[in-house]
């Protein structure tokens, strides 16, 4: 039987019990409106742990003043079915008042890996993510926590948080799950108009074009970036927020493409801002 827990008190009681029984806990933090991407995380957690805890919490701290906190899609009834089908043991589903009864006196500030990509266009976003995860990691005390590579910058920030604050858990990255036409699954895809939905697979195709250019020997990041931008502008009506090519996981600019890097983009459609990325490794040339 899946246990739905809405209070911190109850969660702490149940987790304490699990710990005395030496159960391995797998944790999947989400904002709900679950799709196949979230389900891949739950599946992996189910395979690797005795107990799977899923959290569903649309975290106000990680939304900017002009972002979609109010309109973020929610459907807890449907989410319960998805969680139960994936064998989740506990859903933690707190209200914002339960998580933040009053303004926090201490928050986490992320100092690296946030100058670029979404960190640059969403100031404070990753501080909000790191702060809520700090609370959730303390509450759930997972052995493993599962994060999608779709949010690659988030995964990189979480790696830093876990390392710097010595959380005794392993971060497990999970590959991006896509629609058959290549569009990365996202809770925000429901906000695409019919026309935009048809255009949106061009985002992934443009990333693939970038990868092909690199595979065929291109070493200049700017050349790859402009080819990707051209393709997005020709094939979609979206407005480019950013297209960038950086080292991964440190997310630093490179003069020449080498080692492990990420090509990442964010594009704004009328009601949804979509992100996607590809992580690839270019072998070092022999000196
Ligand atoms: P969210 O509910 O959007 O905050 O996402 C919760 C978790 O699911 C994060 O670790 C995301 O990276 C992951 N996730 C979201 N979309 C996908 C996807 N298409 N494939 C894999 N993981 C995903």
UniProtKB/TrEMBL annotation:
Q: Where is the active site?
A: 38
Parts of the chain that traverse the membrane: none
Q: Which GO terms describe its biological process?
A: pantothenate biosynthetic process
Which pathway does UniProt place it in? Cofactor biosynthesis; (R)-pantothenate biosynthesis; (R)-pantothenate from (R)-pantoate and beta-alanine: step 1/1
Q: Which UniProt keywords apply?
A: ATP-binding, Cytoplasm, Ligase, Nucleotide-binding, Pantothenate biosynthesis
| Gene Ontology MF terms in the entry | ATP binding; pantoate-beta-alanine ligase activity
Q: Which GO terms describe its cellular component?
A: cytosol
Quote the record's binding site residues for beta-alanine.
62
* The keyword Cytoplasm appears for this protein: yes
Role, per record: Catalyzes the condensation of pantoate with beta-alanine in an ATP-dependent reaction via a pantoyl-adenylate intermediate.
Q: What is this protein called?
A: Pantothenate synthetase
Per the UniProt entry, what species is this protein from, by scientific name?
Bacillus benzoevorans
């Amino acid at each position: 039987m899946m246990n739905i827990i809405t209070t911190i008190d109850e969660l702490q009681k149940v987790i304490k019990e699990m710990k005395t029984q030496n159960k391995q806990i797998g944790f999947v933090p989400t904002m709900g409106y679950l799709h196949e991407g979230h389900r891949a995380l739950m599946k992996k957690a189910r395979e690797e742990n005795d107990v799977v805890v899923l959290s569903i919490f649309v975290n106000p701290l990680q939304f900017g003043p002009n972002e979609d906190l109010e309109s973020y899609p929610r459907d807890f009834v449907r989410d319960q079915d998805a969680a139960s089908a994936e064998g989740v043991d506990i859903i933690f589903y707190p209200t914002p008042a339960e998580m933040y009864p009053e303004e926090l006196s201490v928050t986490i500030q992320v100092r690296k890996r946030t100058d670029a990509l979404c960190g640059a266009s969403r100031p404070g976003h990753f501080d909000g993510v790191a702060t809520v995860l700090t609370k959730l990691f303390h509450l759930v005390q997972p052995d493993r926590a599962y994060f999608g590579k779709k949010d690659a910058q988030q995964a990189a920030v979480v790696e830093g948080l876990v390392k710097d604050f010595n959380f005794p858990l392993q971060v497990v990255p999970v590959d991006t799950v896509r629609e058959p036409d290549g569009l990365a699954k996202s809770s925000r895809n429901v906000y695409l108009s019919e026309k935009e939905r048809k255009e949106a697979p061009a985002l992934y195709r443009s990333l693939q074009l970038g990868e092909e250019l690199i595979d065929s020997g291109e070493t200049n990041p700017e050349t790859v970036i402009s080819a990707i931008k051209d393709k997005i502008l020709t094939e979609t009506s979206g407005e480019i927020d950013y297209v960038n090519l950086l080292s991964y996981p440190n997310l630093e600019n490179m003069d020449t493409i080498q080692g492990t890097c990420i090509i990442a983009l964010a594009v704004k459609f009328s009601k949804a801002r979509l992100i996607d990325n590809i992580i690839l490794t270019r072998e070092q040339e022999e000196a």
